[in-house]
Amino acid sequence: MLDRLTDSYLILLLTVVSIIIAIVGENTVQLLCVNILFLLTMSLISLRGVYKHNHIYSHRSLKIIFFLISTAFISDVFLYFNWVPNLKTFFLVYTGLIKIGVFGYGWLTTVKLLSHRSKVTNQTIILAITAYLFIGIICSFIYFTIWQIDPQAFHINVPREYELKPWNLAMYFSLITLTTVGYGDIFPIGKWVMVLANFEAMAGAIYLTVIVARLVSLYSTPE
């Protein structure tokens, strides 16, 4: 059972589905579903670290991660349904920090594992692609938090016939920045957002050049 749940293809599928819903989702319930999928993905990454790579996660760290994931989910519920309006900013920042920390830790341990591989299979390549998408997801959490606190930190250059939500734009902008496409329809105005966007673009380019290129060169089909 755990072998199927921690399969790289399933983790990549959940990640892609989460990204798509985050961009096209129109209401609070859909946003909550996106965050549940993100937290589920991170849970599977953590289980994979224990189940298949015991040196990556300890059982203690796994318990801490699941505790943080649980509190992040509770905070999301309070935030999106606005149950305690006076603490909205607290829930926003708290859940953002938890997601950034948990996803960031998962990304670092995954990259560490990938960088030490001497033989690569198709599962490893899929996991490397997922880790690449994680960069965009982590930055989207930061952009979303900033966007909610200071909507003037971003400028939408092209008028739209429909109104996109902050979480739609945050994920879209993050992936566009990660891939260094830069359509110019959304660009940062705030200084710290500009700094983050620059670092995200560099991180995406370096990751593809160093990690993915190395893994592809070592790729071999298992007999």
Number-wise, the strands total 2
Arithmetic mean of pLDDT: 85
- Widest sheet: strand order? 1-2
Q: What share of the residues lie within helices? A: over 70%
What's the N-to-C terminus distance? 24 Å
Total number of helical segments? 8
Largest sheet: 2 strands, antiparallel
Basic shape: globular
Beta content comes to under 5%
> What is the number of independent domains?
1
* SS-derived structural category: mainly alpha
> In terms of per-residue confidence, which ranges show pLDDT below 50 for 5 or more consecutive residues?
none
Topology:
Elements: H1 2-5, H2 8-24, H3 28-51, H4 59-80, H5 88-115, H6 122-149, E1 154-156, H7 166-178, E2 186-188, H8 191-218
Describe this structure in words.
By secondary structure, this protein is mainly alpha-helical. The protein has one domain. Strands 1-2 form a two-stranded antiparallel sheet. α3 packs antiparallel against α4, α3 runs parallel beside α5 and α6 packs antiparallel against α8. The longest helix is centred in the middle third of the chain and has 28 residues. The model has no long low-confidence stretch (mean pLDDT 85).
Features:
two-stranded antiparallel ribbon, single chain, 223 residues, mainly alpha
